[in-house]
Specification:
DNA-binding, 29 helices, alpha/beta
Length: 802
DNA sequence: CAACGACGCTCGAAA
DNA sequence: AGCGTCGTTG
């Protein structure tokens, strides 16, 4: 950068923004309200640091998603004068989890690991946990793996080891969970694996207990920056504190800058501790605090709605949220009939935006304003919901109207059965101790190693303290194994060895590239043939798709290979590593790349899948929406039990987190916002009467355009549903704009359906009433002779007496 | 040993 | 409605 170049980094910034950029030494807390130009400030601050002489390799910036890290890095490079900028060499912008994974590989011995460990995802965790529970003779119904794992995860997030957890476990259940925790940890280590929580926990512990490791980190990273600080948990706090240290001797303390917004803290359930940000000033005495309150993203009405809502949180530091903009459309709120009606109305609304719906005539546009009512591209729109299950109906409607859409689910591709199978083979190659992956693939495709044989090998291996693979390799020594099974096992073991060159990855036949390895494994394992033959036999469409996906995986490996840079490892410490490499021994390059590939695959976030270049509407959960912005946003399912979620209604603490979640959703919208609630929503197949979310009632009506379209159907008047005790959505329901044509529905009071009477149902045909449940959620149990399930519990609404 | 169907349970957000 | 487990049959 030129001598005076970095001064340009302050151009166009507000006074507090500029102060934040220039504040480079000592502790700094930036409380950045939604849409206050946070990313702009962070990226310029990093560029400013480098411009004023800080070596790039001494800067560590941590985020929660790969996408956030990638964008931040990109923008810093751009500020420094292009992607080729040498000035950014060694700059580390990454996620907590990636950093920890890299550190743990480089310093495996400090954490009691081997460097080739596997990272277990949620489903691997469940599989392992289930095995452990069974091996402890506990019942999986009294101790469901899911809830046991959540208890263990909680403990880990609070940095409690199995021993410490056991010390606090008083009742029967907790003591058993402690036993599972302990056995589960041992099983993980035996499989040379760590789970997501371990990445943070083991790193935090290693930093605390291993002085040389800690010093290395402290000496390298003199400047620490953490984004979304309100969402850090105890482990992450510990990691940050340890790396920050006490600062250089004679300094004012460490150069740690944290950025966050307590009003956007939405990850309490995974251990995020809001006091990390609230107590920052106490932890770092003399810390500066800069408040970014001015919003540059949303229109005034959207902002007013958000601000009014969040003010209902009692446990909150009041914080200004303002804009100098004027004009802008009111916020739309529609009460819909049911989820199908809701999805139709959302589609209609999105189409209006796409076609350039004029602004609200009641709100005259300030001519200076840039809030153009021009048409909004699909990629500038998003639909948010509280739970993933709400996406399905929405998808149906979007597909029916040929509107392009993408669901933000980063792991979707890797969750597929065929991909998981292929990954299972790759993980075995990378880590032969990985029992969970091995048991997944050992008989997929079927190769004559069934449950009975496998259980025998497993038991034998456990008794002898060996991994499953070691057990398979010595199958000949196992007594009650059939010769057929022994032969099948021998063949399989030989095949595994063929891919790894006998485990050393040095064999002559070993592939030379990652893509080649992936391709070979898919073919030689028989996975390809398995889906091919199935595709032929049943002309099953999904198997064709599976083959395509496997091919796609080969290209993804090739792509990874092209971008992979072994030198760009944030945990590689120049100077220190050369000294160490002698002890570590050389890692075959392909193995290193394979590890990195598997790691990147496991650590993708849902938000990473958001890609505006796709030109489509983005669907995602409210949690995934944090940090993003869209010109048009629709939030669906604003009902009691959905948002706030039913499981959060008991505690005020969780309720306030739900409100923050709602706040996060609202503040993503730049120009137009639609909030919808459905009067009836089907949960687990049963339509249920809902009550509009209390959050809707908290919003300021003067900034909103509210309409109740829930009984816009003439044929419902005077029926059982016209009992109108709707919780008030609005004082003045406006007339309905273009409502989608409703599906015809006929309903009647309970007396119309005596037991034994015959009814017609639009989906299930003709049936007979078995019993009725009167009341608000009136339902009938109906017997259908033409339906597999025979007896269904249905709402009256869709029944006709015949 | 594999494939299929019936039954029963669950039903939140995620790296 | 969707999933996992169990029991039956080929």
């Amino acid at each position: 950068m030129e001598a005076d170049g970095f001064q340009g980094l302050l151009d166009g910034l507000t006074e507090p923004q500029a102060r934040a950029v220039q504040h480079t030494e000592g502790a700094l807390l930036i409380v950045a309200a939604a849409g206050s130009g946070k990313t702009r400030v962070i990226t310029r601050r990093i560029a400013y640091l480098i411009g004023t002489g800080a070596p790039p390799w001494s800067i560590l910036a941590l985020t929660f998603t790969n996408k956030a890290a990638g964008e931040m890095r990109e923008r810093v490079l751009h500020l420094l004068g292009g992607a080729e900028s040498r000035q950014a060499r060694g700059l580390t912008v990454t996620t907590f989890h990636s950093l920890c994974a890299r550190l743990l590989r480089r310093h495996a011995e400090a954490a009691g690991l081997k460097p080739d460990f596997t990272i277990y995802d949620t489903s691997d965790q469940s599989a392992l946990c289930k095995k452990v529970i069974e091996s402890l003779q506990l019942s999986t119904s009294n101790f469901p793996p899911r809830s046991v794992l959540s208890a263990i995860s909680n403990a880990k997030n609070q940095l409690l080891t199995a021993e410490q957890f056991a010390g606090r476990a008083m009742d029967f259940s907790a003591r058993n969970i402690a036993k599972v925790y302990s056995a589960y940890s041992k099983a993980l280590r035996a499989a040379n694996a760590v789970d997501f929580d371990d990445l943070l926990l083991l790193t935090a512990n290693a930093l605390r207990e291993n002085e040389p490791f800690r010093s290395e980190c402290q000496e390298r990273w003199q400047y620490l920056l953490i984004d979304e600080y309100q969402d850090t948990n105890s482990a992450q706090f510990q990691i940050a504190s340890q790396i920050a240290g006490k600062g250089a001797p004679g300094s004012q303390g460490p150069n740690i800058c944290v950025v966050g917004d307590p009003d956007q803290s939405i990850y309490g359930w995974r251990g995020a501790d809001i006091s990390n940000i609230l107590d920052f000033e106490e932890h770092y005495k003399g810390a500066s605090v800069i408040l970014l309150g001015e919003n540059f993203r949303s229109t005034a009405p959207i902002l007013a709605v958000a601000d009014t809502l969040i003010k209902n949180n009692k446990k909150r530091k009041a914080k200004p949220l303002f804009t100098s903009r004027t004009g802008g459309d009111k916020v739309d709120a529609i009460l819909c009939r049911d989820e199908r009606h809701e999805s139709e109305l959302v589609v209609t609304w999105l189409k209006h935006l796409h076609e350039g719906d004029p602004l609200d005539p009641e709100a005259p546009l300030n001519p200076d304003d840039s809030l153009a009512p021009a048409s909004i591209a699909w990629r500038e729109m998003a639909i948010f919901y509280r739970t993933n299950s709400l996406s399905r109906v929405m998808e149906d409607a979007l597909r029916a109207h040929a509107i392009p859409y993408t669901i933000a689910r980063g792991t979707a591709f890797y969750d597929r059965e065929e991909i998981k199978n292929a990954l299972g083979y790759l993980r075995m190659v990378a880590n032969p101790a990985d029992d969970v992956s091995l048991s997944r693939i050992v008989n997929t495709p079927a190769r004559g190693i069934g449950d009975t044989s496998l259980t025998r090998v497993e038991n034998w291996a456990t008794v002898n303290g060996l991994t499953l693979l070691a057990g398979l390799k010595r199958a000949g020594e196992i007594q009650d194994l059939s010769s057929r099974a022994t032969n099948a096992i021998a063949k399989f073991v030989e095949q595994l060895d063929g891919w790894t060159g006998g485990g050393s990855f040095m064999g002559a036949e070993v592939p030379s590239t990652l893509a080649e390895l992936v391709e070979r494994i898919i073919r030689e394992s028989g996975l390809e043939a398995m889906y091919k033959s199935q595709a032929k036999a049943s002309k099953n469409e999904s198997d064709e798709e599976r083959l395509d996906n496997l091919a796609e995986m080969v290209s993804s490996a090739r792509e990874f290979e092209l971008e992979y840079d072994p030198d760009n490892d944030p945990a590689a410490f120049p100077g220190i590593d050369e000294a160490r490499s002698g002890q570590l021994g050389a890692i075959p390059p392909l193995l290193g790349m394979l590890r990195a590939y598997l790691e990147s695959v496991t650590l993708v976030a849902d938000a990473d899948a958001v890609d505006p270049s796709q030109g489509s509407v983005t669907l995602m959960t409210l949690h995934a929406a944090k940090g993003l912005e869209f010109k048009g946003v629709a939030m669906i399912g604003l009902e009691e039990g959905m948002l706030p979620h039913s499981r959060a209604r008991e505690s005020d603490k969780e309720l306030e987190e739900e409100r923050r979640l709602c706040f996060v959703g609202i503040t993503r919208a730049m120009q137009r916002l639609l909030l919808t609630a459905a009067k009836y929503r089907s949960m687990r197949g049963i339509p249920e009467r809902t009550v509009p979310s209390r959050f809707l009632a908290e919003l300021p009506a003067e900034h909103m355009r509210i309409s109740d379209q829930s009984d816009a159907y003439a044929d419902l008047k005077g029926t059982a549903w016209d009992d109108d005790e709707d919780a008030d959505l609005a004082d003045s329901p406006a007339p309905a704009p273009a409502a989608a044509p409703p599906p015809p529905r006929i309903a009647g009071p309970a007396s119309q359906f005596p037991v034994g009477s015959r009814v017609r149902h639009p989906q299930f045909g003709i049936g007979e009433i078995k019993s009725v449940t009167p009341g608000l959620n009136a339902r009938a149990e109906v017997w259908f002779k033409d339906v597999g399930k025979k007896t269904l519990i249905l709402e009256y609404a869709r029944l006709t007496r015949i």
